[in-house]
Design goal:
The complex is a heterotetramer of chains A (306), B (321), C (363) and D (532). With 321 residues, chain B is an all-alpha fold. Chain B has 13 helices and four strands. In chain B, the strands form two sheets. A two-stranded antiparallel sheet of chain B has the order 1-2. A two-stranded antiparallel ribbon of chain B has the order 3-4. In chain D, the strands form five sheets. Chain D has a six-stranded mixed β-sheet, sandwiched between helices. Chain D has a six-stranded mixed β-sheet with strand order 16-19-20-13-21-22, sandwiched between helices. In chain D, strands 2-1-4-5 form a four-stranded antiparallel β-sheet, covered by helices on one side. The termini of chain D are far apart. Classes of the chains: A alpha/beta (306), B mainly alpha (321), C mainly alpha (363), D alpha/beta (532). The complex binds adenosine-5'-triphosphate (2 copies) and magnesium ion (2 copies).
């Protein structure tokens, strides 16, 4: 059986752990198979969980989160016959598939859309903890905004520095209000549970928000502009489906491979004009064929805009 | 910074301080009666969860509020039983309550809603919505004061007004009523109350229950007014901040208002200026986030002298050893 | 004359309280629709049933010993140190810097160096609140809470912007050099030809923790400084009368307390992760409060309480890993254990005292 | 076993005028039997004294009568009616008021607030406060119980705090007033004032129970007196038909010396020389004004004065500590060496190194750590003495055997060094402190209120030890508000008023009236010649 390990945020983090869970559930529903799942509760358990799962014969073992990187590097060689998949970081081992997402690409598109939807010319970004991963979202988004409207202003907030930063919808809402009062009328939230508060506050204030990771358009139909979806569910689904035959090496989940995308559905249909669709499609094509290359914050810890 | 921005910041500060104010006053009643309470966080969390759940189930924020208060009262009763009847250690009891709420809310939430401890989103009447006070149109035209009315005073949820009313009410109860006199006495010298023929335990229980009610309001405000539903650990340390504010306020109601406002204000400022640009250096977001805490320490060290807690605080009342 | 025999006071009461806590936990499990008996089996076998389980139980125990001792030393001086979390965070920074930037020839030297660095950093983080309390009268409970938040912010900044290798997604330091690797118990056991569960994180730091217990015991109950700390903690006017300086004792006690909390980092940062990650303390600082209070602020009590929490942590972890019971159940069980053995212990003690009194009068 | 004054209680019908009758009251605290089968009858309109050693059970008995403790068995009759006193409320309703040995006042409340606490007229305070204000005025006029109704308790002297306690009882219309060691904290003048009030109350028909250790007071104001020993009532007699010696014997169970025999002093070289010592506290109040005082080897100098006139500050400065923020000037020399007044060199440790012993005024707050075992407390302040040290560690064996010796020599009861200080009675706590300070044979011993709240047997003992120390050649500064104690123990008396030494007298050549004048700040006649 395959197995799935969730990171400390937990299975229902309204973010990528939850997306991973949905992928596994989809696989289960389609194949009728069963899988093992584990939730971490402390740092020291990572290795324990990996080894124990490997020893029970689970194959492949999928784990969400860059925090597993170091541990997997240590554990993978001990179980050469087990395949591992790790999401969000690269681990260079012969039996590991590294799934990395092109957050800057998806966020770029979100930025394009935000710039077009904004009437005020000011848009916002609210991140959870100030960590490099979230800067990837932020920077891609800012680039998309600036490319569409060079005069636009992007307001940026991070929620906090403790793990509570991911679970503080109240603070998220307050940040959204602060951004609104500075003129923002579209706000992109990449902040886990805190983002729920951002989306809620935006809906309350009648401005637009952009969800992240999974499709959050349905949370406030007609008020969430779109969601920058990371198809973690697909990554998990594919890995489970491949089973022990899992392809190792790095798997790029980008626009081209449908690994990241903007969620378009009935909930946000009224918000999306033809002009927007055209602009997003154009940007998407340009990114896919390399005409536009959104900068990846991680390569040099800087962002070309702002 | 222009006037409008200032008002927006104050407006934000008012929202952010409200749960702190409720919790701070809650702690004030309890500690003034001699029962230390580091379990404010847990009571708020429990109230937030219960109020969100019931508000979701019934569609009524008010029913949610009542249930949330009941939830916090349940926690208060445990604290009362431990620290009054059984003369246990009040700090341990508080720590236990924080753990208990943190675990129980998620367990129950998962059992009830299967969303990993979240409750479903609340909408409509299941939330407390902002109230626009009358005459904003006319009063708003008055220069300087008008915008204060419109921006800050009007447009808050009803719980904010309740919180602010609780301050003079608490002052009045504490200093103008028989109950308040006895409550303060019991926190300073319980033997004085006992020898006057009044039950120390009864007054302490009353204080602890009032503390529960106020924590309930704080939690309900978080989950059904500021946010639209419960998220695990959503109190995010506010109970501890309220405790700090209480000490800061030297256990007095009006000071509590100012102390919590200060905390709210500092958080609002750090929200508003996430990357403070000081010419050559830009203060990183991490430090802007920590600003309220840093400023608190500076203020405490610089301006606030020794805070003397209620003299009988933290000790169970034992007359026969 | 005591109201009941000493053994009943220190053994029987906690055991019955513990039993009550577990009984209620069982009811909670039942209410969740699971089998409590199975849960107990998973917890006990998972935490105590094998050297492997012990390897984790003792690892957590080590953490809690340090934070528990930290709280108890301050408590003896009448100071309530809620800042263990922040002090341990800073201790982690000290350990990381020592491991990364000093070329240690051997782990034993690295251990000493890192321990000193961790303790120094933790002590420093406690020194400021102590100084503020002693000199400015700032309430130590507030300042230590604030310093927890500030420590998190500081570490966040340092990891993301200064110590993180370029291009790494993970806000963490690089791995420490191999020379700083602390032998784990399984490696030590193997060198003696014995087998101990492989890949468990418990390491030589456990010995350091036991030494710390002994050290704190000597300090508090045997040394002159400890005598003065306890005297000051009980009565400040009396301390003044006896020529004990409140400023000196406040600062020394908090520095020792912070140092002990900082030492925890040797276990989790150097011994287990071998790199510094964000939030590496994971609440152990707060559990330290419960451990100290439950252990009645005596090093031996702290040791037992830390073991109990280590068991709960590991057993509970196993429960969450291998059953469908959410991991928050462990939090609830911990809460019940703290509540019944710590705050509600008179629930058991009072009837027991009556029972013993009746037996004495009867005989 | 016990008897009411004159005849047994059974022989006279209860209704014939007993305000209080206690029958077979028993009470134990865990293993300690504080009261055993106590009978007591107090006729209405009398002052009834109760005496007994520390721990005899007096306070417990009265607390039972007041409903603070519940008896294990026995019954209580008030005015001939059996009443169930289950809590203080029922006692108050039965007309009983009590002034506890340790006042039950809320320190940061005003006098008025304390008065109405528990006796409010309604849910709001205002009406009660204004009624109490009026009532207070009336009571103050009637009984000479003036006190500022708006003052905070913590700002009042102990004497005034006690007035508040009495007023509390009167406000509740108590007919029976119990006072537990009321004079322990009062100056002689205040005590006389109190007795005048008590007589006034009695003459109005109220009944008063007075617990005290001072036989002089018993003889002076009571009509009848009961003696307790080890939890039992051993005798009840008419005051007019007994004598202090008889009472003391009944109390202690053996003969006691009421006056310590002491040879004339033979003063030697000066040990303590104080020149021009002044102190201003942090609120700017001048506490000490230009104090000059010399004490020689082999002499006891008594420092008399109403409490609060700077004695406490003087003792603290000599002991090496004073409140932070105070301003000090002047000079202190011990054995010729100047001691620093403030700064790092001024602390208890340095003073002990300079051979100064110090029995502080408040044993429970300063002199002892109440939670420490007796053997830890008998080293308190001397924790770095070489005989208690083994490197940085303390030598527990040495401390324990030292404590055992001290406990034996000072007859501390129970003789158990493992017992925590808080579990000893007040007198025995004091013996622990005195033993610790005296047995080191300091060149200078500072003694503050050595016998406050201590029973006769223990007083005799402590006084003897102090005189012995003098005879071994130490200089002793005795601070006490008890004029009797000062007069019987001192070789020379200095009187303090408002931070000043008003004058020095030889005990044999002065009268209480003379001293009383000085204590009130009046210089009567020309001062006597102080021997060089
Ligand atoms: N609250 C209490 N708990 C336990 N034991 C007590 C308590 N109060 C008094 N005792 C014990 O009861 C006995 C009688 O004490 P009590 O205070 O009545 O004596 P007392 O005659 O008032 O002494 P003193 O003259 O020192 O005031 C003592 O042995 C004391 O140890
Ligand atoms: N656990 C205990 N066992 C026995 N006696 C105790 C215990 N705890 C306290 N006591 C007694 O309780 C009494 C407390 O009563 P109280 O406060 O009136 O003291 P006291 O003896 O009157 O002292 P003082 O006269 O100095 O004020 C003490 O005398 C002490 O001996
Ligand atoms: Mg007494
Ligand atoms: Mg006494």
């Amino acid at each position: 059986d395959p197995a799935l390990i969730f990171d400390l945020g937990g299975k229902f983090d309204k973010s990528f752990n939850e997306a991973a869970y949905q992928g596994a559930e989809r696989w289960k529903a389609e194949t009728g198979g069963s899988y093992k799942e584990l939730e971490m509760q402390s740092e020291a358990q990572r290795e324990q969980a990996l080894r124990r799962l490997a020893e029970t014969g689970a194959n492949p073992i999928v784990m969400t989160g860059f925090a597993f990187g170091e541990v997997l590097n240590k554990v993978a060689p001990d179980y050469p016959n087990t395949k591992f998949a790790i999401i969000d970081t690269e681990v260079d081992q012969p039996n590991v598939q590294s799934v990395v997402f092109a957050e800057p690409e998806g966020s770029y598109l979100a930025g394009v859309l935000a710039a077009l939807a904004s009437k005020s010319g000011t848009v916002g970004f609210i991140g959870g903890m100030d960590i490099p991963l979230i800067h990837k979202f932020e920077c891609g988004y800012a680039q998309g905004v600036k490319a569409t409207n060079p005069n636009a202003k992007v307001l940026i907030n991070y929620t906090g520095t403790t793990p509570n930063a991911w679970n503080d919808p109240v603070k998220g809402a307050e940040l959204a209000k602060a951004q609104k009062s500075q003129g923002a009328d579209v706000i992109y939230a990449a902040a886990g549970g805190t983002g729920i508060g951002v989306l809620q506050a935006a809906a309350d204030m009648n401005i637009l928000s952009i969800g992240v990771d999974s499709n959050q358009n349905h949370l406030h139909p007609g008020q969430v502009l779109t969601s920058m979806v990371k198809r973690v569910d697909n990554a998990v689904y594919d890995a489970f489906k491949a089973g022990p035959e899992l392809q190792t090496g790095t798997r790029e989940m980008n626009l081209k491979s449908d690994g990241v995308a903007l969620a378009m559905d009935d909930n946000n249909k009224p918000l999306i004009t033809a002009e927007m669709t055209a602009a997003v499609d154009k940007a998407a094509t340009d990114i896919k064929d390399g005409t536009i290359k959104p900068h990846d914050y991680l390569t040099d810890n800087t962002c070309p805009v702002q | 910074m222009d006037y409008a921005t200032l008002l927006q910041i104050v407006d934000s500060a008012v929202r952010l301080m409200t749960p702190l104010l409720f919790a701070c006053l809650a702690g004030l009643y309890s500690e003034r009666a001699g029962i230390f309470d580091i379990g404010l966080e847990g009571k708020m969390l429990m109230a937030a969860f219960v109020s969100a759940s019931v508000a979701f189930a019934t569609g009524s924020a008010w029913l949610g509020l009542i249930a949330g208060v009941a939830g916090a009262l349940g926690m208060s009763l445990i604290h009362g039983l431990a620290s009054i009847t059984l003369r246990g250690n009040q700090l341990i009891s508080g720590v236990a309550i924080n753990f208990l709420a943190s675990g129980l809310t998620v367990l129950l939430g998962q059992k009830l809603f299967g969303l990993g401890g979240r409750t479903p989103q609340l909408s409509g009447n299941a939330r407390f919505l902002e109230i626009t006070l009358p005459f904003t149109e006319t009063i708003g035209k008055i220069p300087v004061l008008g915008p204060i009315y419109v921006e800050v005073i009007s447009g808050q949820t009803v719980l904010v007004y309740i919180a602010f009313l609780c301050v003079p009410l608490t002052w009045w109860v504490l200093y103008r009523t028989r109950f308040g006199l006895r409550l303060r006495a019991v926190g300073e010298n319980p033997a004085s109350v006992d020898t006057a023929g009044i039950s120390v335990a009864r007054i302490r229980y009353a204080a602890v229950l009032i503390c529960g009610v106020l924590c309930g309001l704080a939690g309900a405000y978080l989950a059904t007014a500021l946010a639209a539903g419960f998220v695990k650990e959503m109190t995010a340390g506010r109970g501890y901040i309220a405790l700090a504010a209480l000490i800061f306020a030297k256990w007095r109601p009006w000071y509590a208002l100012f102390a919590t406002f200060l905390f709210g204000l500092m958080e609002a400022i750090s929200n508003r200026f996430p990357d403070l640009n000081l010419g050559p250096v830009t203060v990183p977001s991490m430090f802007m986030n920590a600003l309220p805490y840093i400023l608190t320490i500076i203020i405490l060290a610089g301006f606030v002298g020794r805070a003397i807690p209620p003299r009988a605080g933290g000790e169970p009342y034992v007359k026969e050893r | 004359m005591e109201k009941m025999p000493k053994w009943a006071d220190i053994v029987l009461t906690p055991l019955i309280s513990l039993a009550l806590a577990f009984l209620i936990s069982g009811l909670v499990i039942l209410a969740l629709g699971e089998n409590p008996w199975e849960a107990v089996k998973v917890m006990v076998t998972g935490a105590l049933g094998s050297s492997y389980g012990w390897g984790f139980t003792l690892y957590y125990t080590t953490n809690f010993i340090f934070t528990g001792l930290a709280v108890s030393v301050a408590y003896h001086a009448g100071l309530f140190n809620i800042g263990g979390e922040g002090q341990a965070t800073l201790g982690g920074l000290g350990v990381a810097l020592a491991c990364l930037y000093i070329p240690w020839p051997h782990w034993s030297l690295a251990l000493i160096g890192a321990a000193c660095a961790g303790a120094a950093f933790g002590a420093f983080w406690a020194l400021i609140p102590a100084w503020l309390q002693a000199k400015r009268g700032s309430h130590i409970v507030i300042t230590t809470i604030m310093f927890n938040f500030i420590a998190a912010a500081l570490l966040n900044y340092i990891l993301v912007n200064l110590l993180r290798p370029v291009g790494s997604m993970d806000p963490a330091t690089p791995n420490f050099p191999a020379a700083t690797h602390l032998p784990t118990i399984s490696e030590i056991a193997a060198s003696f030809g014995m087998k101990w569960g492989q890949h468990t994180p418990v390491n030589v730091t456990l010995a350091l923790a036991l030494l710390a217990c002994l050290g704190v015991w000597l300090l508090i109950w045997r040394s002159r400084l400890g005598y003065e700390i306890r005297a000051f903690g009980k009565s400040e006017p009396a301390a003044l009368y006896a020529g004990i300086s409140p400023v000196r004792i406040t600062i020394i006690a908090m520095v020792i307390s912070g140092g002990l909390a900082g030492l925890m980092a040797v276990n989790n940062v150097m011994g287990e992760a071998q790199r510094l990650v964000m939030n590496s303390v994971e609440g152990a600082g707060f559990i330290g409060i419960a451990v100290a209070l439950m252990g009645r602020n005596h090093p031996f009590g702290v040791l037992l309480a830390a073991l109990l929490f280590g068991f709960l942590y590991q057993g509970g972890g196993e429960l969450a890993l291998w059953t469908s019971i959410p991991r928050e159940l462990i939090t609830v069980i911990q809460a019940l254990v703290i509540l019944f053995t710590g705050a509600l212990d008179n629930l058991v003690r009072m009837p027991l005292e009556r029972l013993f009194a009746r037996r004495r009068n009867g005989s | 076993m016990s008897a009411s004054p004159g005849e047994g209680p059974q022989s006279r019908p209860a209704a014939a005028g007993y305000a209080i009758e206690l029958r077979a009251i028993s009470k134990s605290f865990g293993p300690v039997q504080a009261n055993k089968d106590i009978d007591l009858a107090v006729p209405r309109g009398t002052i009834h004294g109760i005496i007994g050693e520390n721990g005899a059970g007096k306070s417990t008995l009265m607390s039972i009568l007041y409903g603070f403790y519940r008896p294990d068995s026995g019954e209580i009759l008030i005015n001939g009616q059996r009443v169930a006193i289950t809590d203080s409320q029922s006692a108050i309703r039965a007309g009983i008021g009590m002034v506890f040995q340790h006042f039950k006042l809320v320190q940061n409340f005003t006098v008025l607030e304390n008065i109405i606490l528990g006796a409010e007229d309604g849910a709001l305070l205002r009406p009660s406060l204004s009624r109490a204000r009026g009532e207070l005025k009336r009571l103050a006029a009637e009984y000479e119980l003036q006190v500022d109704p708006d003052a905070l308790i913590e700002e009042l002297s102990v004497g005034h705090q006690q007035r508040v306690e009495i007023l509390k009882a009167l406000y509740r219309q108590a007919d029976i007033l119990i006072l537990d060691e009321p004079t322990g904290v009062l100056t002689p003048a205040e005590a006389d004032h109190l007795f005048r009030i008590l007589r006034g109350l009695r003459d109005e028909g109220k009944t008063i129970i007075l617990i005290t250790h001072k036989l002089r007071e018993i003889m002076e104001v009571t009509d009848n007196v009961s003696v307790m020993r080890r939890g039992e009532m051993v005798a009840s007699v008419r005051t007019a038909e007994t004598s202090p010696t008889e009472l003391a014997e009944l109390m202690v169970g053996r003969k006691v010396l009421l006056q310590v025999p002491k040879a004339p002093a033979q003063p030697g070289a000066p040990v303590l020389e104080i020149r021009g010592l002044s102190m201003t506290d942090r609120d700017g109040v001048e506490r000490l004004r230009n104090v000059d005082l010399t004490i020689r080897r082999g002499e006891i100098v008594g420092l008399a004065g109403v409490s609060g006139n700077g004695q406490t500050q003087l003792l603290e400065i000599l002991g090496g500590y004073s409140e932070p923020g105070a301003k000090l000037s002047g000079e202190i020399r011990v054995n010729g060496t100047a001691l620093p007044l403030a700064g790092p060199g001024a602390n208890g440790r340095a003073r002990r190194a300079a051979s100064i012993g110090h029995v502080p005024e408040d044993r429970q707050r300063e002199g002892l750590i109440m939670d420490f075992a007796a053997w830890e407390d008998t080293a308190f302040g001397y924790q770095d003495a070489p005989e208690f040290s083994r490197g940085a560690l303390m030598d527990h064996k040495a401390m324990q055997s030292d404590a055992t010796g001290k406990i034996a020599r000072f007859d501390v009861r129970p003789p158990n060094p493992e017992l925590a200080a808080k579990n000893f009675s007040g007198g025995n706590q004091q013996k622990l402190v005195v033993a610790r300070e005296i047995e080191r044979n300091p060149d200078l011993l500072l003694v503050g209120q050595p016998t406050r709240g201590v029973d006769i047997g223990a007083i005799e003992f402590i006084h003897k030890r102090i005189v012995e120390l003098r005879d071994r050649g130490s200089a002793i500064l005795l601070v006490s508000v008890e004029l009797d104690e000062i007069r019987s123990l001192s070789d020379r008396i200095a009187v303090m008023f408002d931070g000043r030494i008003m004058g020095e007298r030889l005990p044999a050549e002065t009268s209480s009236a003379d001293l009383g004048c000085l204590m009130a700040g009046i210089i009567p006649s020309d001062p006597i010649e102080v021997p060089a």
